[in-house]
Fold this sequence. Notes:
The longest helix is centred in the last third of the chain and has 30 residues, at 187-216. This protein has helices at residues 30-39, 46-53, 69-95, 140-146, 153-171, 174-184, 187-216, 223-233, 236-244, 257-270, and strands spanning 12-14, 104-107, 111-114, 117-120, 126-128, 133-136. Helix 3 crosses helix 5 (153-171) and helix 5 (153-171) packs across helix 8 (223-233). The two termini are 29 Å apart. The chain has one domain. By secondary structure, the chain is α/β, with parallel strands linked by helices. Helices cover 51% and strands 8% of the residues. A hairpin with a 2-residue loop joins strand 3 (111-114) and strand 4 (117-120).
Amino acid sequence: xxxxxxxxxxxxxxxxxxxxxxxxxxxxxxxxxxxxxxxxxxxxxxxxxxxxxxxxxxxxxxxxxxxxxxxxxxxxxxxxxxxxxxxxxxxxxxxxxxxxxxxxxxxxxxxxxxxxxxxxxxxxxxxxxxxxxxxxxxxxxxxxxxxxxxxxxxxxxxxxxxxxxxxxxxxxxxxxxxxxxxxxxxxxxxxxxxxxxxxxxxxxxxxxxxxxxxxxxxxxxxxxxxxxxxxxxxxxxxxxxxxxxxxxxxxxxxxxxxxxxxxxxxxxxxxxxxxxxxxxxxxx
Length: 284
């Protein structure tokens, strides 16, 4: 991915070592860690699980955090990708006659406190609609590479673009509509709504890649394959198979590997926001 000459975003907040929550959350322990690991990549609203397992106390992780040279470069990379999503979505919203509100991206280490509750790194990157911020511990990318077999800088960019997709859903009012519908639905139907919401965020990530490459020529050979590999690696079917040895489709919250790949490709190939309406199609 051609990123080094890109613009850097002003919307990165570095909270690593700056007084976030301690890696062991109040009221946590082994049970908390188990819950978090089970929830990894499963699309659970942080405010649901995190506030149940975390107490009101907050502890500092210390102010002497020093990133490694590799982390420093990765921080620079994340800033460029975030800036690129800003450029893409600012243009898209202008075409729709609206104004894009740029989100903040928070870097943290170990654990963090958001407006959606407390979160540990094991939960992976997440978007909190309550404060309109994306949260990520950069060590997640090592897990993406080693545990899920999805290396590469464009795979890393896809993760950020997917979370920014959730921010776009918030600005468009989609997230609020889904939340209201899920309150009226049973568990199975609520999961299906979550799948459609997540697949739309995948499509939005593909849409970003389409426009970013068209205007700024960011893609290199193999980049698209990296993103598709990452989308496939964190499909619900594959994660369930790894965790429990069998697949329960009714429990899907993000979509299968095949579905995630399909919708990312749909956004990538079309570059059309209207093609990302996962809520109006009969078959995902």
